[in-house]
Structures are given as C-alpha cells and as structure tokens.
Specification:
With about 280 residues, this protein is α+β, with helices and mostly antiparallel strands. The protein is built from 4 helices and 17 strands. The radius of gyration is 18 Å and the shape is globular.
C-alpha cells in the first residue's frame, strides 16, 4: 500500500563529499531510522533522486559518540566508508567543538580527530587478511591472488581486490571493475582498485566500488591500496594517495590505517514526500 504523501514526515539530510566521493547523510540521533533499501536506491539515483556514492546514517550509541551505517546506491549495505566517516566526524566536531571522536561501524569502532587546517583524520582499523573474514571463497595467497594480474586481497570493513598497474590513467577501471566485482572468489562481491606506484611514498589510484561503480575517491579503497602495495614490497607504510578527486594521505600504523584529507558540506535539504518509495 502506498503511503499518502501528506502523512510522510519530512526528512532532513545533508550532502557532503570528500574529494568528490559524495554522500547523503541522515542524522537519525534521537529519531527513527527511516532508511530502507528502496529509499537508498531512490535517493541514490542521480537523475530522479539526489545522487551519492554512499548514504550514511548517524545513530545514537551508548558506548561511542555515534554509530554509523552505510548504504550503496544499489540498496545494499556497506560495512565501512572512510570518507563518509571523515565527513561525519567533521560535521560532529563542528557541532560539538570536540577534536576527537569514537564512531562505531559494523567493522569496528573508529577513532577520528581534527588534523588541523580543516583536515580530518580517521583510523580505519587494522586490515584483515584472513580469507574467511575478507571473505574469499577459499584459502588462497592474499598477497597474490590466483587471478589475472595477481591482485592483493584484504578487508578494510569491506572486501578489496587491488591490482598493480604500470599506468593508472590508461587502466580500464570500468571493464576491470565490472568484471572482478563479481568474481566467484569474492562471494560478497568486492571493491576493485587499480594502483600505480609512482614512488614508495606516492601512489596513483583509480577506484571501482562494489554496488556503486567508478568513484572519484574512497577512503577504504585508499587504505587497501596502501596496505596491498606495502605487502608486495612496493611501498612504505606511509604514502600520498592520488585519486581522481584529489589527494589523501594514508599511514599504516600498529593500531590501524590512518587516513587524512579534506571534507566539504554541499547543502542541507528536506526530502519531498513524493520521493518516498
């Protein structure tokens, strides 16, 4: 049964982005979470909705400053989103005056902090290499997968398949991403990264996100690229990571992979009742 438009409550949301990796953010603290797969798909449509790479919802949490959930444009859930976490951290720090926050996700409780100059840093947690937890379909070498190009595999709260390429600009990320997102080795699909090592501390990265497609940036993908390159002996543990939308800075420390970069608020608006699926 269709809900009459007059009975649908207004839904406030923000549009934010981190280097062009864009998000719709709904603050559900003190309120009911309205998001369903159908609503995520409707909002995510760039022609008849708002458009986003991920939809992020902020919830109250008894043990952390907030709990976050993430949705892809196809209506599926994502366990982690680094740039959305940084955007929400910046939003909440501006609201409260805090300089450090703990934000709980399905992957882990992530620490975020003000890095100065309006930059925001988040600890995306320790990378996961156990094939069962990535997850992969079987036990294989996660440094060099038995796939063409021998990509690396890991999880940063969501699965990643990281290819090393000699020329990231020329890499066919659309074809490779569409192909390997659905490879049988990844039972829950995967993000696909094409990374060129410019120097041990400088990487060029192109990104295909599962459930989304090509994106200008991705925090978890940037972290995965750094970790995969280091495991192959191609980079250090700290690097400048150049994505299509700009530059992020990653550092794989003992307590996790820290990601630093800018964020921006685009606008705040109210969802029309006509948009509710």
């Amino acid at each position: 049964m269709t809900t009459p438009a007059a009975s649908v409550p207004p839904l406030r949301f923000l549009k934010m982005h981190g280097l062009g990796n864009d998000f719709v953010i709904i603050d559900a603290r003190g309120a009911h979470d309205p998001v369903t797969p159908a609503l995520a798909r409707a909002l995510g449509d760039r022609h008849i909705g708002v458009g986003f790479d991920q939809l992020a919802v902020i919830h109250d949490d008894a043990e952390a400053d907030a709990r976050l959930t993430f949705w892809n444009t196809d209506g599926s859930l994502s366990g982690a989103c680094g740039n959305a976490t940084r955007c929400i951290a910046r939003l909440m720090m501006d609201q409260s005056g805090a300089t450090r926050l703990a934000l709980r996700t399905d992957f882990d409780t992530l620490l975020a902090e003000d890095a100065g100059n309006r930059l925001t840093r988040v600890n995306m947690g320790r990378p996961v290499f156990d094939w069962r937890r990535i997850p992969l379909a079987r036990d294989v070498d996660t440094v060099n997968l038995p796939l063409p190009g021998a990509p690396g595999a890991l999880s940063m709260g969501n699965p990643h398949c990281v290819f090393i390429t000699e020329d990231a600009e020329a890499a066919d990320i659309a074809a490779q991403g569409a192909r390997f997102e659905h490879d049988p080795l990844y039972p829950e699909r995967t993000n696909v990264e094409m990374v060129q090592v410019l120097a041990p501390d400088r990487l060029r990265l192109r990104i295909w996100e599962r459930g989304v497609g090509i994106t200008l940036a991705s925090g978890s993908c940037a972290c995965a690229a750094l970790v995969a390159c280091h495991r192959k002996g191609l980079s250090g543990r700290k690097a400048e990571i150049i994505v299509d939308g700009g530059t992020l800075h990653g550092e794989w420390r003992e307590d996790g992979v820290w990601l630093t970069g800018p964020t921006a608020t685009v606008f705040e608006a109210t969802l029309s009742p006509e948009m509710w699926p």
